[in-house]
Amino acid sequence: MIKIGVLGMGRMGNSHVPHLNANPNAKVVAAYDPDPQKAADAKAKFNLELANSAEELIKRTDIDAIFITSPTYCHIEALKPAFETGKPVFCEKPLCRTEKQCQEIEKMAQESKSVVTIGFVRRYDAAQKAYHEAIVSGKIGTVRDANVDLSLGVFKRMPGDWFADFDLSGGVVLDMLSHHLDLLIWDFGPVRSVVANATFQSKYFPLPNDFAAAAVTFKSGVVAGINCSWHRSGRNANFMEAFGDDGSVSFSWGEQKYNFYLPGQPAQIIETGPKQDAYLLQDNAWIDSILKGTKPVVTLQDGINAFRFADAILRAAAEQTRIEL
Fold it and tell me: CA 50, CA 28: separation in Å to the nearest integer?
C-alpha cells in the first residue's frame, strides 16, 4: 500500500484524491494547504490528516510518495524537500514558472533518487494516443506541417486570481498550451526554433484575457502553427491537425475519434473506443510505475522540455526575435 501526501487542496487536489483512493494499492493519508479553509475542507471531505507545512508533510516517515497540485509558481517549494527525501513525486503541469526555477529543478534532480512524473494527462487519453500513433506510425507519410487551435472563449478568472496574473501563471501559453506543446514534442520530436506574438494578459485590459500566436520549426523539419487564447467570449476550440505526404489527421480533445484524410477523399472517422477518465488512467499509471519500479509514462525531462518550449514562445513574443532551442 503506497501512502500518499498531497500538496495543494484546490481544484486539482480535490480532483486527484478520489482517483488515488480508488486504487487498491494506494491511499492518500495526509495533505497540506496554506489556506486554512481548503485544508479544513480536505480533512472533512477525505478524512485526511493535516500537516503544518509542505516540508513537514513531505518528510513524514509514513508518507511513501508525494503528489504536488499547488499553483505553478509554488511547485519548486514542494519539489525541493521532496528531492531531499528521494521519494517518488507526481507534479502537476507545468513544471515551474521560470527558467531559473527550471535550472534549479534540473540540478536537484541530478542529485536525488526521486523519480518524478509530470501531469500531462492528455498522453493517457485513448483518442489522443490513437492520433499520435497515426502520426508516428507513418500512416500519413512524412509529416510536413501541423496546427494547434486552442481558443478558449470562456475565461472566467478575475483580477486577484493567480491564474489571471501573468507573472504567476504564465498565461494561456504556460498553463493551458503546455499540454499541446508536450504533445507536439511527443509527435514530432525536439524543437529547433520559435517566433511568436502575444498580448500577455496586459494589466491595461478591462478584464484578464490572453492571446499568443507562434510559428515553430522542429528538428525533424516539421513546421507548426499555434494559436491559443483565454478570451471572455467567442468560440471554444481544442484542436490539433497534422499533414503528411500521404494524408492528414485531425483531432478535437474530448472526442472518442479522430479524422483521417486521404488525398482527394472525404474524412474517414476513426473511432477510438468508449471514453475513459484520463485522470484516473494517469494516476493509476503513476502508482503502477512506483510499485514496479519502472520509468513513468511522462518523465521529468518531458516536463522540462515542455516548459522550455512554452518559455521560448513567451520570450520570442516579448523580445520580437527568433528563439533557438
Answer: 11
Q: Exposure pattern of 174-201 as b/e (b: 16+ CB <10 Å)? A: bbbbbbbbbbbbbbbeebeebbbebbbb
Taking every pair of C-alpha atoms in the chain, what is the biggest distance, in angstroms?
A: 63
Residue 203 has a pLDDT of: 75
What is the pLDDT at residue 202? 78
**Burial zone of 156 (CB within 10 Å; 0-12 exposed, 13-18 middle, 19+ buried):** exposed
Q: What domains sit in the chain, N to C, each tagged with a CATH number?
A: 2-114 (3.40.50.720), 123-273+307-324 (3.30.360.10)
User: Which residues of the chain are under the pLDDT cut of 50?
Assistant: none
- Cα–Cα nearest to 243, from 224, 256, 219, 257: 224
Q: Say what the alpha-carbon torsion angle 68, 71, 76, 80 is, to the nearest 10 degrees.
A: -40
Q: Report pLDDT for 201.
A: 83
- Residue 299, C-beta contacts closer than 8 angstroms, at least 6 positions apart: 116, 117, 118
pLDDT at 248: 98
Treating both helix axes as pointing N-terminal to C-terminal, what angle do 99-110 and 300-319 enclose, rounded to 10 degrees?
A: 160
Question: Could you give the 3-state DSSP secondary structure of residue 322?
Answer: coil
CB of 298 closer than 8 Å to CB of 123:
yes
